[in-house]
Amino acid sequence: MEQNLPGVFTARKKDGTLYYRASITHKKKHISLGSYKTPFMAYAAYLEGISLLADNTLALEDFSKHRVLSFEKWVCLVNFRDNHIYFATPIYVRKNYFEYLLSPEYILKFDIDDLFFYSSHKIMRRGRHFFVADYGMQTNIMNRYGIKNYAVKGRDYRFVNGDDLDFRYENIEIYNHYHGVIRKETKKGTRYVAKIHINGNYTIGSYETDIEAAIAYNKAIDLLKKAGINKNFSPNYLEKISPSVYADIYEKLHISPKITAYLRE
């Protein structure tokens, strides 16, 4: 029966269950439209795909739960029709950026420079966190923009326009680049406070620059390890300064007496 339905093909699961696949060829591009339980559903998807590619009045916003095609496939086809390039991920290219549409409610924005990466990496969502599978591991996409896993929005970084789904580089402002460092605004200006967690949070000191605070954090780790406290501390890596400059700052930095007092306990 399905042989009489254009764009419909039979397939079987490992357990032998029969299902139906729909596909379409447009501008010499063969596109899979998904799998369906009946040949009539697969054919409906085929017809919907043809209609979407031919009708410029149908937009991303015209998707609804009553459509046969999935939302992801709807996005892929609309982008192919409008921008003449097909992506297997739900990307729609705008003038100077692109959108990655996980759902009608979750529309992420990225710079064009990231197009190659996200066209080959599927974004997954867990609550308000977004991940990609990279080298066999799930990686939080925030890391790609310098936002550490432990970072707190408003303290360590912010989205300039207030939209935390807008990952364009100009929209992400990093306050704290280093582990254990917190930026604080005072009446006298910006200060950088280094803190470390031992059995509770301890303040290492307050410093003029984030680099000094990051090195102070490393110095506190060294002192603790020398005293036999081998917790899983994460030292900061500072690539912008030479070893000699690092050593000079390291030597001069003051560490809070509370740290040394803890070591004597």
TrEMBL record:
Matching InterPro entries: AP2/ERF_dom_sf, DNA-bd_dom_sf
GO molecular function, one term: DNA-binding transcription factor activity
SUPFAM superfamilies from the UniProt entry: DNA-binding domain
Domain of life: Bacteria
Protein name: AP2/ERF domain-containing protein
